Amino acid sequence: MVAMPDIGIDPTLAAIDRILEAKAAEMPPRTYLGASILGADCERFVWYSIRPEVPRQPFNAATIRRFEDGFAVEAQMIERLRSVPGIELWTVDENTGGQIGFQDFGGRFRGHVDGVVKGLYQSPKTAHVFECKAVNPKKFEEFRKLKLALPEKEVLAAWDKTYHVQAMIYCFYLEFSRHYLVVSTPGGRDYLSCRSNANNEMGAALRLKAKRILDSETPPSRISERPEHWKCKLCDYREVCHGRAVIANRGVSRYQTTVGPQADREPA
Ligand code: SF4
């Protein structure tokens, strides 16, 4: 086999990455439960994420660049939608001057939508919660295939559970009957969309789930007892969860208690 040439490291680009990582490390940890993660497969991950004292793996430069691309694509899509005659798109709550969103349980559960849109050509009279997700090409293709295979209103739930949960929470709290999602490739070169109907029963059940996790004194069950499970290998809390980290001044056992039966799922 012919050896591949070493591509080498550009020290200038490497310096950019270190700056990105240093800036991200300065961000204060989140102290509330965000609607965007309530649908994560592992409840224990959600529970850890609202405890700033639990050490999490710092974001690496590749993840930060992905986040930045997501924000840029969202802003670009808002501008593109606003350029369409008849479309109205709001991103600011006129009462607070901040992002449109909700909070519950004394601010311990919160979420902010990308916007609210009205005048979509496929549903001109109905206001929709608007969100934009920039995803990798493989996930974009999965979305495209589901669009071909399913009725539009079933696509989001089949495509991504976490995004669907987020959408249903927003519709529930903000009292909208519809959600409009634009899914884009990185950089916004290609995009598709789907609309979803609100499901208030699901929204109410998710609200209770959020309360249960917020009020829990002990960590919920792990998704797997095996640290080599593919989800655990990718998880920012694997060190503390599977017992290799020590939390200053608190001891680690409180964060490692296992409660309830274990689910051990593999990727679909
Ligand atoms: S390491 Fe695994 S079980 Fe623990 S929080 Fe992460 S995903 Fe859940």
Characterization of this structure:
This protein is an alpha/beta fold and 268 residues long. It has a domain at 61-209: Lambda Exonuclease, Chain A (Alpha-Beta Complex). It has nine helices and eight strands. The chain has helices at residues 11-26, 43-49, 61-82, 137-149, 152-159, 161-174, 200-215, 230-233, 238-241; strands spanning 33-34, 88-90, 101-104, 109-112, 115-118, 128-134, 178-184, 191-197. The strands form two sheets. Strands 2-5-6-7-8 form a five-stranded mixed β-sheet. A three-stranded mixed β-sheet has the order 1-4-3. A hairpin with a 4-residue loop joins β3 (101-104) and β4. α1 packs across α3 (61-82), α4 packs antiparallel against α5 (152-159) and α6 (161-174) packs across α7. The model is unreliable at 248-252 and 258-268 (pLDDT under 50). Iron/sulfur cluster binds next to α2, α8 and α9.
